[in-house]
DNA sequence: CAGTGAGCGAGCTTCCGCTTGACTT
């Protein structure tokens, strides 16, 4: 029997804390929230003052049973969840779900996981802050009402299984509107002049790059300038030296970690969080879901010590960074290595790389500014009034740059690399090597990446560190947006060159607009956004979250009652829902493409039950309409009549093999060939409209070969097989699959070995495959 | 799971925020 039961949110945290508290304390984890609104009837009794109906979350029953038992035995239960709105609610739900008696329940909070912080917290317990809990209930109920009233509206008016919500719908809106900006963008052409010069001193010559600070609006003007230059001499008009400095970026929050890991390591936000979780669980980093740039006193002193030891005292500068994130709740520290003297950690390559990034960022944040000397050289052109500018930068003291430099999203800036300039003097002559005037086009705003969308959401105060990655997944899962595969276009541009007194011109081309992995809205995403904007402009407003957050704060401060706030919101909102349900037309996004040359019937592109499709004929006509789904990368907005007609050519028989037809068609998972009842997906490079019989046979055979390789080993006991799966070899036994231990060679396994592996894995935990993830 | 899209219409889908796990087309 234990005197004290301490409950925290995360098992990794529980483990650490237990070490600090003596044997009189048992530390357990609730694994996050333990109760949630019921699924049925929205989980809210709307006519009963919006009373929430809570139930133990699925999968949390075991945790609750165990905690209940321990709580009963304990003298005191310490609720030590985070000190923010959600944390307070978790404490309250625990006290409700566990039936804790107030006299033996204490609420404590701590911001650092150190022995002093925790013992201090134990000395200063308090009760549960009911006002803060109310603010959380308001947040929860509002999200539920919005989500569970808007989504069914979409099922009726657009397509089944869609979803809408305070966070996801605004995220989609951002992407949709960015795409509209890009489509509406008219590039502005101008001519940018750059030149390469050389100067001589006694010993050697140096090359210097320079640019004209302003661009020419027309080709004629650029050409005239080059002509003037052809007859010009060049001289240094002025040299200006200015001291400058650079300061390190603050330590990582969830959002900045996701951005930097995307830029420097090409991780998706999901991957970053997964790897960070592993580092957290192995005790290498602090908690990875945080909006704070704060470092604990312990971390600051560790950093100082480490920097002084490794680089010298002059490199250390202790800093605290103010959090700029809107609505930041600061329940945790910034993301940092647990031990700053550990320069490397992690058990996989990805873990080591992410750890390295976190270590460098943290250390750099506690280092001195870099001091620089920036030099600007103005160069006179004898026959023209324009001046060239050459820029140089010398690092006088590297400071934090020794360790780390933050990357940027806009690659344009990277172009402007400033090097070291040679020693120069005012009045010194310069000699032209070559000069170029290139036609440049202004660029439309860039498409969002996963990480830049997270940054934007954070700037708007929408979403929380724990939901950034899931939100990004959701809007892709619902097929509102997809990762782009825009091939871009070839764009011609003019280039003029001046070399050895000769002026020549060239027509060159460049690739523009090509994007990979950027977020692009689908037809469904655009249409749903348009529909929601027309009917629920308030919820789609970028400031909606900020506005309700303010009201949640008022609830937390006791200025408003939570259900009063919800009532004020709900009445007009619900009216809009009802009104739209009755009066809104079904959203089809229909576009008439033209007439079928064969039958003369109309051809449309529109949204169907299963997504975007094309249709021949109207349903009123005697002959039934025919349908075909759009392919990936096709859009209702841009599909042509010819492309639509192409889609109606399937299924087509491309030949025969072993006396059966080879039928090529396009299904839910893309183009495929069907033969003897088996389906084989076409490869990326195969065009289903021109694929040959020979190629189709090749694919069928390839699939058969794979099928044969699937069986690594079979035994007399037919229940057990060693198979080759997507993730390497595994053992299949009665519909369940088992991992093969690392060092074991799959083909050497005997039946006994397999049985042993199955038996041993069975002792861990029984795993039933769920048909659907919750 | 692989060409569906109306018809009869049952029963289903859905939110955000806090956690981790155990898994294979």
Structure description:
The protein has 774 residues and is α+β, with helices and mostly antiparallel strands. Helix content is 35%, strand content 24%. The strands form eight sheets. Strands 9, 10, 11, 12, 13, 14, 16 and 17 form an eight-stranded antiparallel beta sheet that branches. Strands 2-1-7-8 form a four-stranded parallel beta sheet. Strand 23 (652-657) and strand 24 form a beta hairpin. The radius of gyration is 33 Å and the shape is globular. The two termini are 36 Å apart. It binds one DNA strand of 25 nucleotides through helix 3, helix 5, strand 22, strand 24 and strand 25.
User: Radius of gyration from the CA trace?
Assistant: 33 Å
What is the number of beta strands? Answer: 30
Structural class: alpha+beta
| Main beta sheet | 8 strands, antiparallel
Distance between the termini: 36 Å
Strand content: 15-25%
Low-confidence stretches: 411-415, 762-774
Tally of alpha and pi helices = 21
Estimate the helix proportion, in percent: 25-40%
What form results from the Cα inertia axes?
globular
Rounded mean pLDDT score: 89
């Amino acid at each position: 029997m234990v005197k004290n039961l301490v409950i925290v949110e995360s098992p990794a945290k529980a483990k650490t804390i237990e070490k600090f508290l003596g044997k009189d304390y048992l530390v357990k984890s609730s694994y996050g929230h333990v109760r949630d609104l019921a699924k049925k009837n929205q989980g809210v009794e709307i006519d009963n003052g919006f009373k929430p109906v809570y139930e133990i979350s699925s999968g949390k029953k075991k945790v609750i049973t165990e905690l209940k038992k321990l709580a009963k035995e304990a003298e005191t239960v310490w609720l030590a969840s985070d000190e923010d709105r959600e944390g307070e609610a978790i404490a309250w739900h625990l006290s409700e779900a566990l039936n804790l008696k107030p006299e033996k329940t204490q609420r404590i909070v701590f911001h650092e996981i150190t022995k002093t912080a925790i013992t201090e917290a134990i000395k200063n317990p308090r009760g549960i802050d009911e006002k803060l809990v109310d603010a959380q209930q308001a947040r929860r109920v509002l999200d539920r009402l919005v989500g569970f009233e808007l989504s069914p509206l979409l099922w009726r008016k657009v397509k089944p299984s869609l979803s809408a919500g305070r966070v996801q719908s605004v995220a989609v809106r951002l992407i949709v509107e960015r795409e509209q900006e890009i489509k509406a963008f008219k590039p502005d052409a101008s001519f940018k002049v750059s030149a390469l010069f050389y100067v001589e001193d006694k010993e050697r010559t140096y090359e210097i790059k320079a640019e004209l600070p302003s661009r020419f609006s027309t080709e004629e003007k650029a050409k005239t300038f080059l002509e003037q230059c052809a007859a010009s001499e060049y001289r240094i008009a002025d040299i200006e030296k200015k001291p400058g400095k650079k300061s390190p970026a603050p330590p990582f929050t969830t959002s900045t970690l996701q951005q930097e890991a995307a830029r420097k390591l090409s991780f998706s936000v999901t991957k970053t969080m997964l790897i960070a979780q592993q580092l957290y669980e192995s005790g290498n980093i602090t908690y990875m879901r945080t909006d704070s740039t704060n470092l604990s006193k312990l971390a600051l002193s560790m950093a100082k010590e480490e920097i002084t030891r490794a680089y010298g005292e002059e490199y250390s500068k202790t800093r605290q960074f103010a959090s700029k994130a809107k609505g930041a709740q600061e329940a945790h520290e910034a993301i940092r290595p647990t031990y700053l003297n550990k320069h490397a950690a992690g058990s996989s390559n990805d873990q080591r790389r992410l750890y390295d990034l976190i270590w460098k960022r943290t250390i750099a944040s506690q280092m001195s500014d870099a001091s620089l000397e920036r030099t600007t050289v103005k160069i006179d052109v004898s026959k023209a009034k324009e001046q060239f500018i050459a820029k140089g930068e010398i690092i006088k003291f590297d400071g934090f740059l020794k360790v780390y430099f933050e990357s940027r999203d806009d690659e344009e800036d990277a172009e402007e690399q400033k090097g070291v300039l040679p020693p120069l003097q005012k009045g010194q002559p310069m000699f032209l090597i070559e000069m170029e005037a290139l036609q440049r086009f202004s660029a439309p705003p860039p498409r969002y990446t996963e990480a830049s969308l997270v940054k934007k959401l954070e700037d708007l105060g929408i979403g929380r560190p724990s939901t950034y990655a899931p939100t990004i997944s959701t809007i892709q899962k619902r097929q509102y947006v997809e990762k782009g595969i825009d091939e871009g276009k070839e764009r011609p541009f003019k280039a003029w060159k001046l070399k050895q007194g000769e002026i020549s011109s060239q027509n060159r081309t460049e690739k523009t607009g090509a994007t990979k992995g950027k977020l692009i809205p689908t037809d469904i995403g655009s249409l749903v956004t348009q529909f929601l904007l027309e009917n629920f402009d308030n919820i789609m407003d970028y400031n909606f979250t900020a506005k309700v957050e303010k009201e949640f704060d008022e609830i937390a401060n006791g200025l408003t009652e939570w259900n009063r706030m919800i009532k004020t919101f709900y009445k007009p909102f619900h009216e809009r829902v009802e009104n739209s349900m009755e009066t809104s037309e079904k959203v089809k996004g229909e576009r008439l493409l033209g007439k079928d040359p064969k039958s003369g019937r109309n051809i449309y592109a529109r949204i169907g039950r299963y997504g975007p499709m094309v249709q021949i004929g109207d349903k009123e006509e005697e002959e039934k309409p025919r349908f075909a789904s759009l392919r990936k990368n096709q859009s209702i907005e841009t599909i042509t009549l010819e492309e639509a007609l192409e889609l109606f050519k399937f299924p087509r028989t491309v030949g025969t093999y072993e006396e059966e037809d080879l039928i090529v068609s396009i299904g839910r998972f893309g183009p495929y060939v069907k033969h003897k009842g088996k389906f084989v997906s076409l490869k990326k490079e195969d065009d289903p409209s021109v694929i040959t019989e020979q190629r189709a046979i090749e694919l069928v055979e390839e699939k058969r070969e794979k099928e044969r390789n699937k069986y690594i080993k079979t035994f007399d006991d037919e229940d057990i097989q060693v198979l080759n799966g997507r993730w390497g070899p595994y053992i299949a036994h009665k519909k369940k699959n088992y991992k093969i231990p690392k060092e074991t060679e799959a083909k050497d396994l005997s039946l006994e070995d397999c049985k042993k592996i199955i038996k041993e894995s069975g002792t861990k935990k029984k795993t039933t495959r769920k048909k659907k993830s919750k």
